[in-house]
Design goal:
The complex is a heterodimer of chains A (144) and B (392).
Chain A: H1 2-26, H2 33-62, H3 66-88, H4 103-132, H5 137-142
Chain B: H1 6-9, H2 40-68, H3 85-111, H4 124-150, H5 161-182, H6 184-189, H7 201-219, H8 251-254, E1 265-268, E2 273-275, H9 277-282, E3 286-293, E4 299-308, H10 309-315, E5 323-328, E6 337-340, H11 342-345, E7 351-356, E8 359-360, E9 370-372, E10 385-391
Parallel strand pairs in B: 1-10
Antiparallel strand pairs in B: 1-2, 3-4, 4-7, 5-6, 5-10, 7-8, 7-9
Helix pairs in contact in B: 2-3, 2-5, 3-4, 3-7, 4-5
The chains are: A mainly alpha (144), B alpha+beta (392).
């Protein structure tokens, strides 16, 4: 049964890839599919050869502790989602309802608010540890 | 772990000769990655979340594609209900796509050391599996990047967005299915929480969940009404725009700022006729609360007032079950001519709207008249309507 499901997933996946490739190569609006390939490979190389080594370096050397690392994960995500709006805030093609918010203020505000939450989390963890420390060791033994 | 792979036992394809040892440097070294979280259980947990987000993206994207470009026989089957169907599915499309950004980032970081596994390929099957992963990752990165920038109407690439995003979506989903099939034993072996706890895993997964939460809370307000106050980073706010409604294409962009004084609605059918704006306003008027919902993930509801499209078609002597072709005053643009299947044209909620929230339509909302119909993509709610045509 599981082998059957696995085979079905593999066959379906290959069929979907084949359909996607066929579409990319035959769509009349896609006059140069090689451009798509260039951008896809470019995205892969930028992500795996530039961004991830940098991330591993920061994570291993500079960012210590789960709370700081956690906040950096949140900050990276918020930046990925918000930075394009910051960069394009002035380019609405004459359509004021596109990008109507003060992104250059909101993006740092979200970073600051999440940093404040992270600081509170860190304080709570620190206080809980401090409160627990003088307790006898046997109490910890109860907690499996 | 991978040696338990059934394919390794009975190889259909030959083994690959081992690479020279002097290449084993830098990230290829043993222990080059120090974190304990580069392990299968973390990858499986993140993979489940990411897989779910990507599947939601694919299915909701497919829904949008079918509604925008119905393959012939399907067009009669598209439902005009639920009224908010397009709004909810496309809101979800963008919400899950944005959630997939931190999820894909975390998943790819977790499995990053596998990129440098040694030897790089054990067999031709293994090499093909890795090629499949390259297709999957490249396709997902391209989809998330182009999709995110499309919500800002930012197109720095040389290819058309819509067709590329559609076809690469098939590659991403196919790559995902192949990946799940290839990794099935590893996924099954790590599906349940293991007895041994890896230090830091819970904190890392909590961080990723918090990142998804932060991105969702600060952007989903562009479609979810009760999140509007937290909408800080989304490219739209549903109450900002002319008459309190966002606009996808302005009258200036469409070249329809000044409507000719001779404007008349022309209705072609068995009994063709023309109506001035005043004559239209004297026909029986109806109101409908319907959303404008864009594939870019924003939506806003409004109270529209005008003439029922069904009434206009009946007046032209259209037989029951007639479909409709609507032409805009726009001089060009891919949505200048719109086809509307019969079930929408007959729907009592489908209006040729002359007013929104009690006011005459702004030029940006399609003055003198626009189409508004339930469960339809925003780009098919044709503005600046010049002509309705009964089609069989």
């Amino acid at each position: 049964m599981t082998a059957w499901l696995r085979g079905a997933a593999l066959a379906a996946g290959l069929a979907l890839i084949g359909f996607g490739l066929y579409g990319l190569l035959t769509d009349p609006y896609l006059t140069d599919p090689a451009q798509v390939l260039t951008w896809a490979v470019g995205a892969l190389v930028l992500h795996d050869a530039v961004w991830l080594p940098l991330l591993c370096l920061v994570g291993a050397r500079l960012a210590r502790g789960p709370v700081l690392r956690g906040w950096l994960v949140v900050a990276a995500a918020v930046t990925a989602a918000g930075l394009p709006a910051v960069l394009r805030a002035d380019d609405d093609h004459g359509n004021p309802s596109l990008l109507p918010l003060p992104y250059l203020r909101n993006w740092p505000a979200v970073l600051a608010a999440t940093a404040a939450l992270a600081l509170v989390t860190w304080l709570v963890i620190w206080l809980v540890r401090r409160w627990r420390r003088p307790r006898p060791v046997s109490r910890r033994g109860d907690r499996s | 772990m991978e040696s338990k792979h059934p394919g390794a036992r009975r190889r259909l394809l030959p083994a690959v000769p081992p690479p020279p040892a002097f290449l084993r440097r830098g990230p290829f070294r043993d222990g080059a990655f120090s974190s304990a979280l580069h392990e299968p259980r973390t990858a499986v947990v993140l993979g489940r979340w990411l897989g779910a987000a990507l599947l939601v993206c694919f299915l909701t994207g497919l829904i949008s594609h079918v509604l925008q470009d119905p393959p012939g026989p399907l067009s009669g089957l598209l439902p005009a209900r639920p009224v908010n169907g397009y709004r909810v599915t496309q809101g979800l499309h963008v919400i899950s796509g944005l959630a997939a950004v931190p999820l894909a980032g975390a998943k790819l970081w977790t499995v990053y050391p596998r990129l440098f596994e040694w030897p790089p390929a054990r067999s031709a099957t293994h090499a093909l599996e890795r090629l499949g992963i390259a297709v999957l990752v490249a396709a997902v990165l391209l989809e998330l990047f182009t999709g995110l920038l499309n919500t800002l109407q930012w197109y720095p690439w040389p290819f058309p967005f819509r067709q590329t995003h559609y076809w690469v979506g098939w590659l991403a989903t196919g790559g995902l299915l192949v990946h799940i099939a290839a990794k099935a034993p590893l996924i099954a072996g790590n599906w349940r929480r293991p007895q041994v706890r890896v230090p830091g895993r819970r904190a890392f997964l909590t961080s990723v969940a918090a990142a998804v939460g932060a991105v969702t809370l600060t952007t989903a307000g562009q479609t979810v009404p009760w999140l509007r106050t937290l909408n800080l980073l989304a490219p739209r706010r549903p109450d900002l725009g002319p008459q309190g409604l966002p606009v996808n294409r302005t009258a200036a962009q469409a070249g329809t700022v000044a409507v000719p004084a001779t404007w008349r609605l022309r209705v072609d059918g068995p009994r063709p006729y023309e109506l001035t704006l005043d004559e239209l306003a004297q026909l029986p008027q109806h109101e409908a609360v319907l959303p404008i919902a864009c594939v870019e993930g924003w939506s806003a509801s409004a109270r529209w007032g005008g003439v029922r499209v069904a009434d206009l078609l009946a007046r032209a002597g259209a037989p029951a079950g007639s479909a409709l072709r609507v032409t805009s005053l726009e001089t060009d643009g891919p949505y200048r001519v719109m086809e509307m299947p019969a079930q929408y044209a007959e729907d009592p909620l489908t209006l040729l709207a002359l007013r929104v929230n009690g006011e005459t339509l702004d030029a940006d909302h399609g003055f003198p008249a626009r189409i508004i119909a339930p469960n339809r993509p925003g780009v098919l709610q044709t503005k600046w309507v010049a002509r309705l045509e009964v089609v069989r």
